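Schema walk-through. Below, the input block comes first and the output block second. Nothing else is stored per chain. Lengths vary across the set, and this one has 291 residues.
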Amino acid sequence: MNGVLLLNKPAGISSNAALQKAKWLLNARKAGHTGTLDPFADGLLPLCFGEATKFSAYLLDADKRYRAVLQLGVTTTTGDPEGEVTATRDVQVDRAAIEAVLPRFSGTIEQIPPMHSALKHQGRPLYEYARAGIDIERPPRSVHIRALELIECDLPRVVIDVQCSAGTYIRTLAQDIGAALGCGAHLTALTRTAAGGFRLALAHTLAELEALDAARRRALLLPPDALVAHLPARELDDAAAAALRQGREVPDASSPAGLVRVYTRTRAFIGLADAAAGRLSPRRLTATPQA
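--- output ---
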């Protein structure tokens, strides 16, 4: 079984638990997801099966979009509702003050990754150190906030829409916004609404999957090349396609320089290739052409 399932992950379970449930429902052998959502978060979680797992990294590195709910005036150890409250303060700001602060967090900004994250230090995730009461120094990382908009303001509850680069920590963004407002904040809810070219509106819940028979579940899968649809495509004749699949470079003067999707003449997807100097060299190929 090869393809991509757009799952609407429910809040309250881990991304891996959602993956394993979907894997069982589809009776799939090989599966993976394209970017973890915390257990308290919900929303779009694209899942890859079979040959599609070879191309999951291209969505993992894609931009994401979130609807984030912040509670001003309360900070927690984790920056989200799963942590312990560390401080409470009066909220003496209004909508105008919040809208005035948000532009500070647009564009390229620096974030210090949270201790309660899966980022590794000496082979161990940071959350393991955090649970042991050990604080590890984390260098700041650059992320890009492409758009940041205030959607609702019912103080102390605030809802923002965030379009950002991969690797952005929305919990950290919430904490930093709270700090800039002088009252602190933490994330109370988070919904991923988009990842790359995929949108939450097209995703399916686990309950929907359970209500379908096996054939209709499989029919929901997008083809593996949906993960790389943003790349230019190139169609090869039979001889060139066979040579590329054998790991050889093939001449191709018409491809733009860079990474391209490669297909047979019958439009079967055979993988990705690097185009340069009038030649294509294989980058990541499927085991068999995917119609």
